[in-house]
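User: Show me an example of a complex going from sequences to structure tokens.

Assistant: Sure. Here are the input components:
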Amino acid sequence: MSKQIFKEKIAQTVDILKEKDIDMWLTFVRESSINHDAAMDMVVGNNSTWEAAFIINKDGDTTAIVGDMEEENFVKAGLYKNITGYLKSIREPLQEYLKKKNPEKIAINFSKTSVLADGLTHGMFLKLLDHLKGTGFENKLTGAEEIISALRGRKSVTELSIMKEAVDETLKIFDEATNFIKPGVSEIEVAEHIKKITFDKGFELGWEETHCPAVFAGPNPSGPHMGPSDKKIQKGTLVNMDFGIMYKGYCSDLQRTWYVLNDGEEKPPEPVQKGFEIIRDSIQKVAKALKPGVKGVDMDAIARNYIIENGYPEYAHGLGHQVGKTVHDGVAGLFPSWERYGNAPFMELEENQVFTIEPRLPVEGYGVSTLEEEVYLTKEGCEFISTPQLGLILINTK
Amino acid sequence: MSKQIFKEKIAQTVDILKEKDIDMWLTFVRESSINHDAAMDMVVGNNSTWEAAFIINKDGDTTAIVGDMEEENFVKAGLYKNITGYLKSIREPLQEYLKKKNPEKIAINFSKTSVLADGLTHGMFLKLLDHLKGTGFENKLTGAEEIISALRGRKSVTELSIMKEAVDETLKIFDEATNFIKPGVSEIEVAEHIKKITFDKGFELGWEETHCPAVFAGPNPSGPHMGPSDKKIQKGTLVNMDFGIMYKGYCSDLQRTWYVLNDGEEKPPEPVQKGFEIIRDSIQKVAKALKPGVKGVDMDAIARNYIIENGYPEYAHGLGHQVGKTVHDGVAGLFPSWERYGNAPFMELEENQVFTIEPRLPVEGYGVSTLEEEVYLTKEGCEFISTPQLGLILINTK
């Protein structure tokens, strides 16, 4: 990520702290190359070996307290106004700084809902309590979930423009898949081909190589998040691919569905066509309803109910997630009210958040119908970042 | 890491649980590609998107409770005897499993001392308490530090043999530095040359590229952990390099010191020679004392005091750390009793642990004298893994 974006995000943080009325946001880390707090990718940029505190205040002051061996690194980075080095323990400079600023509310990085707002380990939480013991500040700690949620979700103009480029590049790679898919080719062969094109273009994969891309050749494909197998593509079946890239520090995440025409077929059989249209239309229904202020749980219900009403089983996952520096980004999501999603389905959605919409349904005997599009929220609705897939991509083997 | 090593480490865990009399070790994670618990690299291998529990018991039973979308991945991995999938919440299968096993003591991954034993985030700790509420098991939780310390520290025969190969390969790359270092070449040029050789050989860097290798051209070099600069190597000064590779999943970490002879010099000036010998001899003194049962704090004191007695300032860091899958590995270390090292200096050292020994001292007007060797503890002492540097490597520019 460029220094410019870090500066934008730190400035944005100050505005968010004002809006949420939180005096101070404290990111407290050690050996962050081993146990990495995702907040550092938004407002720090460099890892820290020794215990370090990265502090952004509502009043605009920014201070980093770091091991003195690393002081020069952070001075060079130039993101924090004050850099304080320490040798034996961070306790004294940290206490001193807090006494000077005297915050009423200090946000730290823990969250039951979101991994992205939960970078503080339990051991480091206990260490922080030790450091603050007796100062009174140990009673002023609160979770930084709403800060991080806003900061990661509200994409800047620069961020949105990079994310659009990422999606455009990804769709070009999907076109290469269309040229490659044919009967007899295995899921793994498709995946290897796509990876090679991605690396040749100088991009990284959007997520772990074991299932990026994930390729599903129906019927009876593996579940989502499974890696490709040596199963071969057959005539008269559906093929899907879930794939994204990492581009200039931001991810894309898209899915497309192909149908391989059988001997003598001019078009897909009716159940295949219907299964596709239900998915396509459920996405359009959600996109019409998506706007700032609505809740993810209601968006998920629109697609989920539409699919159930049409006689298909509901998908065994959420409808969509935010995308950003990580492929599952932000906190709020288009999720059902299942316990494992915590508070994320119930948060009001905001302008400039980027979401995937990715419903799925099985087409008995043919495979799976699934699409994944990316949209961002505008002031009054949403816009597609990806050009939506409106018809099945047909593989003609005549 | 090969499946074989994971199996070795899981089997070793069962022995450690018996030795420490802990019934169960529970690694509790979510979205582990974003917030990664280092324990997974020892006993799991695959990441998990949904909340997951990886459980190893003193009685030898191993069970993973994972999101059902990911169940097949973990079945395929074949490391855990039982794999249980869940859809909406991990709570029920987790409670059910605990009731069946009824452990008296459950170790979870938090530690004030070590990042490697501190993979559980504070938010996940709170979630775990929620999941266990009312079962009584929430009162049976303890830190897994001693399990993880033993597991990471006690290298298996396979691990030791890989680590020896890693050091051998690294020393060959240091020889290439000897051929490259000469007056007028910058720190960055040396670093780029070394990185190119490393990548050409198909290895990865041992730590972050910004300071791997770290190259220091005296006099007045930057502190340790700083990246190389455009400072040029001069005649009549010391040059040091701190460098390691990642080889078959294990790291190396070594330092060497060169002296660039000045016009008319046949050998280094007396202060340079003395500074080198003090460092070299301090390492030998530590190696003679190192054996299972001693404490790191006493090992650090041997080198630190020897350097101070000889009229040099003490080094501003620990004497040495463990090495393994990460460059700073294990929990126990050869550290002074500074607060930031927590309990790590006071743990008894064990057979088959691998340590660096890396004292440092300034040689006024010439630069820094520093060496870093790797040793492993035998039943009764220690053996060098690296061939120790016994004399300054002289760069002759005549």
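The lines above are the inputs; the final block is the predicted structure for all two components together. Residues 259 and 358 of chain A are 18 Å apart (CA to CA).
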